[in-house]
Specification:
By secondary structure, this protein is of the alpha+beta class. It contains 4 helices and 5 strands, in the order E-E-E-H-E-H-E-H-H. It has helices spanning 44-67, 84-87, 113-126, 128-135, and strands spanning 9-12, 18-22, 25-29, 71-82, 98-109. The protein has a 3-stranded antiparallel sheet with strand order 1-2-3, with no helix packed on it. A two-stranded antiparallel ribbon has the order 4-5. Helix 1 packs across helix 3 (113-126). The protein starts with 8 loop residues before the first strand and ends in an 11-residue tail after the last helix.
């Protein structure tokens, strides 16, 4: 199958706010007031974790449909650790990204505990966002307009 391309576009707003148009929707990200933002939206890091949860939920629905499993629901909690010294430039030896991400899920389906674990592992394996977080993708930043 051929590769598909996706595109979003955005711009900086007032202060730390950033607005992104994606798929016909507008997302506003900001920093909390305690970090010099206006709290107009979630932080970009919050959005990554939210997107991971959304991706898990979507893939879980696909997988349940494919396996003819009645998945009545899924609840999740995602926790991630990072060192702010990396993104603030205080320590060049510290990665700015997440050091650890833990997703805890509760599945409402007629499956044994072991079957639920296997199902969740397959969701993680097939989730594009999890794949990018675990294995990365090439990123090329280019300056335009000069």
């Amino acid at each position: 199958m051929a590769l598909r391309s996706m595109r979003v576009q955005g711009e900086m707003g007032h202060g730390f706010a950033v607005t992104v148009d994606c798929g016909g929707h507008q997302v506003v990200m900001d920093q909390p007031k305690t970090a010099a933002g206006t709290d107009a939206g979630p932080t970009p890091l919050d959005m990554v974790l939210s997107a991971l949860g959304g991706c898990f939920g979507t893939i879980a629905r696909f997988l349940a449909h494919q396996r003819r499993i009645e998945l009545r629901g899924m609840r999740f909690e995602i926790e991630a650790d990072y060192d702010p010294d990396g993104l603030l430039g205080r320590n060049p030896d510290v990665r700015p990204g997440f050091q650890r991400i833990c997703l805890r899920a509760e599945l409402d389906a007629d499956l044994s505990t072991e079957e639920k674990r296997e199902f969740l592992a397959e969701v993680e394996r097939r989730c594009p966002l999890a794949d990018n977080l675990l294995h990365g993708a090439s990123l090329h930043s280019e300056l335009v307009g000069d």
